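Progress against Task 2.4 (sequence-to-structure conversion) is shown through the following example record, which the project officer requested during the mid-term review.
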Amino acid sequence: MRAGHEGTGPGPITPDGCAVELYRRLSVGTEPDVIAAAVPAGAALLELGSGAGRVTVPLAARGFAVTAVDESAEMLAVVGERAPGVETVRSPIETLDLPRRFDAVVLGSFLVHTADHRTRQALLETCRRHVKDDGRVLIQREGADWHLDVPRERRDPGGYTVRIVSAQPVGDGVNSVHAEYVFPDARWTQTFLSRPLTREAFEGHLAEAGLAVDRYLTDDGTWALARPRRAREVSG
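Structure tokens generated for the chain above:
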């Protein structure tokens, strides 16, 4: 397991504590709607950290040409089962270097909140490296009180309960977050490290990677649309 990350429950667990069977079962949220509304119809999308395809599959069904990237072979196998036409690439996001660029790059699952600054910058540089100069980068952020409103739980329409049990400080502005997913027939837990980011800090990290926020796509600011800085400056 990656330091500070742990997962329990049935089936394979990835190094960052994600259970493959859990991610297969998770319901689709509003993410596909947000993404689809922000990019041109039929666009070529690079999804970084696709997991088992919870967002990948509905985007492909809407006609987007999706390339799904994940470092877990087990996760990508599920994507292949659910959406056979989707291109999958097994690679760490930080070192991905495909020989082409995309209309849009998606960095979801709050990956931008990784505890390590160097890893965050590598993630954002991968986004910049793979997006066209006139393209778009869509990034999912945590809510403003995400680490403060604990414990909390919600009942998903899919018939399971999600609990954020705790967010404990472990130093240097990082929290250890513990989550539980309770289904009628199974239970999974996940513990991971997460660094809260103010909007100012978030935009500063984007700038270091050559990106700039064009606009926030949701009222709560949890989805941002960024563009390459040079393209944005010219168009603006």
